[in-house]
Specification:
Belongs to the bacterial solute-binding protein 9 family. By secondary structure, this protein is of the alpha/beta class. It contains 24 helices and ten strands. The strands form three sheets. Strands 2-1-3-4 form a four-stranded parallel β-sheet, sandwiched between helices. The longest helix has 30 residues.
């Protein structure tokens, strides 16, 4: 029994006791749950469930404007998001009031306009990864400013709900009656919408836009299967939201899943369980009614006991974490270095050798542009003695993640000192495709690793020199291979515009279908321009990028008669043994793939 209690404690509470970032995440979700419960209940009661989703999407253009004006400023982005969503709500209400169109239809129209405007604003920045990670970011990266915003909005919302509860409920139950007895009915309606917007703004700072809607609506819809009274509905919705956040964070911790989706899936599980076993109007309640009657189900408490028993069984059957022998972990035998993605981790291993324990947040085959942090990543950073990043705005999600981990050690920017090329007004971060820039990476790593472990200085210097010799030898071989291709054939289209440094270094011409980030979507004009360019310049080879979506590139190849020349590696190494599992092999693979396709096409074209 004692062992069982210990395992339950280790599974259910130990992560929150041990890690501050999990406590911070749950506090943020708990603050949201206090107001999401009553607001979601009122939205369901007013038959405005989908309006919450519409207003959540309407945040996008305002947040984008705030970002363009002030960068990653919490105040500017929040103010812009609030203004945009509130404007959509006011316009939809005005259309419903002065025209025969229903409010839900006008909401749909204006939210679609706002969503499209937001996407276009983001596209003007070349697909800003930073903004996308804030809008759809991770609750694990909640910082003090975001937590203060959530707490302030939650507290103010509870106060306003307490003051306006009766008129808001009257407007939900009988809006005609409220309009007949009070001229303040429209103001009450818009005040309620403003509360919803404010909580969605606070929610997207923690969970992201879509995840905030899930925490707002799923608990409220689940609670209706259990209780009938309005106060009980609001209270139970808040409890379900808080428990869903707790369960989702635990699921994220133990199963190493992104936390936002895990929280919403936990809330979705509560909804499905309520739909199946709830006390009122659930599937089980309807099945257990007497034939010919419409009374409530027999033994309603059994349903609740069934849900609790199933939850307890799931927790007990889940693998328990190993008990820790001591609360303070021992110092590592080797300094721990965490690199943001696999290419940097390879360079750290090459320069540092076995003297360092090296790991990467985004492993081989992963796309750092759209990486979603997990609790394991936060723990990984918190236990490190050095964090190595690329810089040049490549890891837009990393600053918030480092803060959430409590890490206070050095952060080494591996690209420091590199003059970056500009793409769409932003620095191109893919500098590792030029061997000359790799030398700068190695110099920065050599200096940073030597500071971390001065006793290894001689070994670090020796390994760095040996690596640069291998890099120079590879560069010589690759230049000789490219020289075999006539200059007029050294042209190709790639599915990801990440090879500008490679093209400049080796005198080839590579044009990307997408912008420099895989989060950007090319326009019709971009595609048409590329297709005309391919036809006018007789470009016959098109290359895919290993982490991108190949459908668009394949469509262009079919329409232009080009051939898919192979797969290139841009932002990640391949899995071990797949031919591009180190940076040197990646460079050799990419140049060999390009030159082979060009030489083959040349022989095919020769009569």
């Amino acid at each position: 029994m004692t062992m069982l209690m210990h395992d339950l404690y280790a599974m259910l509470w130990q992560p929150f006791v041990e890690f501050a970032f999990l406590r911070r995440a749950w506090v943020a979700c708990l603050a949201l749950a206090l107001t999401c419960g009553p607001l979601g209940t009122l939205l369901v009661l007013r038959r405005m469930s989908l309006v919450g989703d519409a207003m959540a999407h309407a945040l996008l253009p305002g947040a984008a404007v705030g970002y363009l004006a002030a960068g990653l400023s919490l105040g500017a982005m929040s103010a812009g998001a609030f203004a945009a969503a509130l404007l959509v709500a006011l316009l939809a209400g005005a259309v419903a009031r002065f025209t025969p169109q229903r409010e839900d239809a006008s909401f749909a129209a204006f939210y679609l306009i706002a969503l499209a405007a937001g996407v276009l604003l983001i596209a003007q920045r070349g697909g800003s990864v930073d903004l996308m990670h804030v809008l759809f970011g991770s609750v694990l990266a909640v910082d003090d400013a975001s937590l203060q915003l959530v707490a302030t909005v939650s507290g103010a919302s509870l106060l306003l709900l307490a003051l306006l509860w009766r008129p808001i409920v009257a407007g939900a139950v009988d809006p005609v009656f409220l309009r007949s007895v009070s001229r303040a009915a429209p103001a009450v309606h818009y005040a309620f919408l403003a509360l919803v917007v404010a909580n969605l703004v606070a929610g997207f700072q923690a969970l992201g836009t879509l995840m905030a809607v899930g925490l707002l609506m799923l608990p409220a819809t689940a609670a209706r299967f259990w209780v009938r009274g309005l106060g009980a509905l609001a209270g139970l919705s808040s409890v379900i939201a808080a428990l869903s956040a707790w369960a989702g964070l635990l699921l994220s911790y133990h199963a190493n899943l992104p936390s936002g989706p895990a929280i919403v899936l936990a809330a979705g599980g509560c909804y499905l369980a309520s739909l199946a076993f709830g006390r009122h109007d659930s599937l089980r309640a309807r099945w257990r009614r007497h034939p010919g009657t419409t009374g409530p189900a027999r033994r309603p408490r059994a349903a609740a006991l069934t849900v609790l028993g199933a939850a307890a069984a799931a927790l007990l059957l889940a693998p328990a974490p190993q008990a820790r022998a001591e609360t303070v972990p021992p110092l590592p035998a080797k300094p721990r270095v965490v690199a943001s993605f696999s290419i940097l981790a390879d360079l750290v291993r090459e320069v540092g050798g076995d003297a360092f324990d090296v790991s990467s947040l985004v492993g081989p085959g992963g796309d750092a542009h759209v990486y979603e942090p997990t609790p394991a990543a936060v723990r990984q950073i918190s236990s490190a003695q050095l964090v190595v990043v690329n810089g040049l705005r490549f890891e837009g999600w990393l600053d918030r993640l480092v803060f959430a981990s409590g890490y206070r050690g050095p952060v080494l920017i591996a690209s420091e000192g590199i003059a970056a090329r500009q793409v769409f007004g932003a620095p191109d971060p893919h500098a590792w495709h030029d061997p000359a820039h790799v030398r700068r990476y190695v110099a920065n790593l050599r200096e940073g690793l030597t500071r971390l472990a001065p006793q290894e200085a001689a070994a670090i210097e020796r390994r760095a020199a040996q690596y640069l010799q291998r890099l120079d030898a590879l560069d010589t071989r690759l230049r000789a291979r490219v020289a075999q291709v006539p200059p007029e054939r050294r042209r190709a289209i790639t599915s990801h515009d990440a090879f500008g440094y490679l093209a400049a270094a080796y005198g080839v011409r590579l044009v990307g279908v997408q912008g420099w980030t895989t989060a950007a979507e090319p326009s019709a004009a971009d595609i048409a321009r590329l297709m005309r360019q391919m036809q006018s310049e007789h470009v016959r080879a098109l290359f895919l990028e290993n982490t991108g979506n190949p459908r668009l590139a394949e469509r262009i190849a079919r329409d232009t008669g080009a051939v898919i020349g192979g797969t290139l590696y841009a932002d990640t190494l391949s899995p071990p043994g797949a031919g591009a599992d180190t940076l040197l092999r990646l460079l050799e693979h990419n140049l060999t793939t390009l030159t082979t396709a060009w030489l083959t096409a040349g022989r095919t074209a020769t009569p």
